[in-house]
Amino acid sequence: MTHNYSLVYSSVDAYFDDLKQISDRVKRITGQKSMMVRVPGGSSNTVSANYSPGIMHSILPKLTAKGYQYFDWNIGAGDGSVQTNADQPYNCVTTTLIPHTRNVVLMHDTKQTYVDAVQRIIDFGKAKGYKFEVLQQDSWPSHQVIK
């Protein structure tokens, strides 16, 4: 539901309370229960240790035990930097795509620069022979190494 790390990673229960909020919201809006998640900061994030050292080693197995599939990414659009135009996320993505492998791109829709870059990234990918697939429960889960 949030990326309020101090709240989400204050305890395992707090993480799952936050997850329940977004799960309930998705079900209310779509009528479907989603069992797919992206852990705030990624599964190998180091920020969670600032609030609860080792918490990711508890959260991830519990997610799986509850039937959730979690997804990470192996390509970023530069979320952590200030981006003033659509060329910046476009360049971040298109220069780091790895040919002949599965690329999972992390890209938020909270900044207009990202929204403006999406179609150009798709056009670039298609021109280079990449396929785009809908993320499903049984899709290949790009997982980071837990630290």
What labels describe this entry?
147 residues, mainly alpha, 2 domains, two-stranded parallel ribbon, 5 helices, 39% helix
In short:
Helix content is 39%, strand content 5%. It is mainly alpha-helical and 147 residues long.
Q: What is the gyration radius calculated from CA atoms?
A: 16 Å
Indicate how many domains the architecture comprises.
Answer: 2
Major beta sheet summary? 2 strands, parallel
User: How many runs of DSSP E, i.e. beta strands?
Assistant: 4
- Cα distance, first to last residue? 23 Å
Oligomer: single chain
Mean pLDDT: 92
Low-pLDDT residue intervals, each spanning 5 or more residues: none
Strand and helix order: HHEHEEHEH
- Give the strand order, joined by hyphens, for the main sheet: 1-2
Proportion in β-strands: 5-15%
Shape: globular
What count of helical segments does DSSP give?
Answer: 5
Which class best fits the helix and strand makeup?
Answer: mainly alpha
The percent range for helix content is 25-40%
